[in-house]
Design goal:
mainly beta, 20 strands, 43% strand, nine-stranded mixed beta sheet
Length: 396
């Protein structure tokens, strides 16, 4: 397919987010070296061949080792599998990096999850993406369609073993209200490079909670586009990276976001929190917010907080705010990375709580606000248990 650019781009690297290359063709993107700004934090050698595969790759296409499953769905939600000739595919997401373009070109069948117009879900719809084998590149595509004035919660859980590059397109219709919870709880040998793209219609509301708790290397890129006035996006994230005691590489969890304010009177809030434990555990958070000249009346804020639980763990946090108009309601960003709060520990220990238990309470409190935003009680309890297991395993 032909290349698409949001604005005409000069030769060479893009000067701003507005000039970034968009293309469905992997050949339009140069081979990765690791020196690119978008990839400088990512250990390319650990991507299981996804960084070196190209458009001529002749392996088995599409979810060869990954399955999409679901049980009984609430009324108003349907799931179907379609080919790339379906008109919805590619209507929201145009890749703007090499691996996303590769995933688009190599998936065999796309999963479409549809919430009917006007549907009011009486319970969450749950979808599972399950990997059966790591080590060989696999590719997937999902399209989530939320009809106008629909309202409900969708949960997508990723588990098992895989080496997966996948794209997820999410179209939220006018006046719809979607809560999307994505949980990456992969096996320790899994590699995932994912691009999630949201498009919000007029007065649409999105709440996305992104949880990353497992996998060898998980790199998730989330972007938001507003199609009309009144869009409201709240993006939350929770991640906990650890390192094995055997001296192997620690987990690498990387979250990148782009919120593109291109129409007036829209709002966004980004709040991500992460914890790290063990030598070699590495997390990356890069939050980009672009407010274009025509996006007057924008209100936006982003914050990332990281809690480092041991020596040898590394957290990189880079908030970016690009503003092309002075007529905004508010715009700001913040980032903080640190160790345990000694005052909190002292307060708890002074009341007779042992140090080890006090440390766990501090970590639970650090994540409690974000876990509380998940509107599924059973999932909240399960994630709290998973975090507790990681704390015990890490010796916190």
């Amino acid at each position: 397919m032909s290349t698409e650019a949001l604005t005409p781009a000069a030769p060479g690297p893009a000067k701003t987010r507005a000039h970034a290359l968009r293309s469905f063709d992997v050949a339009d993107f140069p081979a990765l070296t690791g020196r690119e700004e978008e990839w400088r934090f990512t250990p390319l050698k650990r991507l299981g061949g996804l960084a070196t595969a190209d458009g001529a790759w002749e392996g088995q296409p599409g979810f060869a080792a990954t399955s999409v499953e679901h049980d009984d769905l609430p009324a108003g939600v349907t799931v179907e599998w379609v080919g790339r000739d379906d008109g919805r595919i590619g209507s929201v997401l145009t890749p703007f990096d090499r691996i996303s373009a590769l995933a688009y070109g190599k998936f065999a069948t796309a999963t479409v999850v549809r919430m009917d117009r006007g549907a009011l879900l009486d319970r969450p719809a749950e979808i599972r993406v399950v990997g059966a084998k790591a080590g060989e590149p696999d590719f997937g595509h999902m399209f989530i369609e939320v009809g106008e004035v629909a309202e409900g919660t969708l949960v997508i859980e990723y588990s098992g073993s895989a080496t997966l590059a996948d794209n997820v397109e999410v179209s939220v219709g006018a006046s719809a209200n979607l809560t999307l919870v994505t949980v990456a709880d992969w096996a320790p040998d899994t590699v995932q490079a994912q691009h999630v793209k949201f498009r919000l219609g007029r007065d649409a509301k999105l709440t996305h909670i992104q949880v990353t708790l497992g996998g060898d290397l998980v790199r998730q890129y989330t972007s938001v586009e507003y199609a009309d006035r009144g869009g409201d996006a709240e993006l939350y994230g929770l991640y906990f990276a650890t390192a094995p005691r055997d001296g192997n590489d620690g987990e690498h969890f990387e979250h990148r976001l782009l919120v593109d304010h291109a129409v007036p009177d829209c709002r966004s809030y980004v709040g991500y929190r992460g914890a790290l434990q063990g030598n070699g555990a590495h997390t990356v958070w890069v939050g980009d917010v672009l407010i274009r000249a025509e996006a007057t009346g924008t209100e936006t804020y982003e914050i990332n907080r990281n809690l480092v639980l041991s020596d040898g763990a590394r957290a990189d946090s880079v908030p970016n705010l690009e503003i092309e108009t002075g007529e905004v309601v508010g715009a700001g960003h913040a980032s903080a990375t640190g160790r345990f709060d000694d005052e909190q520990l002292f307060y708890l220990m002074a009341r007779g709580i042992p140090e080890e238990q006090a440390r766990r309470l501090v970590v639970r409190g650090f994540f409690a606000e974000l876990i509380g935003k998940i509107p599924v009680e059973a999932l909240r309890e399960r994630l709290s248990g998973a975090i507790e297991e990681r704390l015990v395993g890490a010796g916190v």
